[in-house]
Amino acid sequence: MDFNSSISASIKEKGSIKMPSMEKESMKDRLYRCDNLVITGFMVLMWSIFSFVLWQVVSILETGMERFVVIGSALMAGSFCTASLFAVMIHLRQKKHIIYEEDIDNLLLLRGSNTNATFSDLTGNPDGPQEAKV
């Protein structure tokens, strides 16, 4: 019986692989921070593109009414996109444990970890969780 089949047998017996809750919490927090960083980066990129396009379009327009309509439309579209991204961030914060619990369990299953796995065993990083460097 090889290692993977012994893990599969262990999962069938116990239902899931257990991991110390403290390490699961640190992994959840790390995943949550990474997701928020990606969302924030996308928001900055979105507003940069909106601003550039708006600047180019407004420079072409001749009348004040055309500019007013274009600026108003762009601000409405940008505000709706921003509101939806904030809604995603709020949803992630409220349901963090439910969302990331499944991700971590799947990571454990894919890595074929044992019941006494540590963070370094799961990620291959002996130093533990690292902050994202921007």
Helices and strands in order:
Blueprint lengths: L2 H12 L6 H40 L3 H31 L1 H16 L7 H5 L11
Explain this structure to me?
It is a single chain. This protein has 134 residues and is mostly helical. It has one domain (3-123). 78% of the residues lie in helices and 0% in strands. The chain has helices at 3-14, 21-60, 64-94, 96-111, 119-123.
**Average pLDDT metric:** 78
Shape: elongated
Major β-sheet, in short? none
The low-confidence parts are: none
Estimate percent helicity: over 70%
Structural class: mainly alpha
Pick out its properties:
single chain; 134 residues; mainly alpha; 5 helices; elongated
Please sum up the structure shown.
With 134 residues, the protein is mostly helical. It is 78% helix and 0% strand.
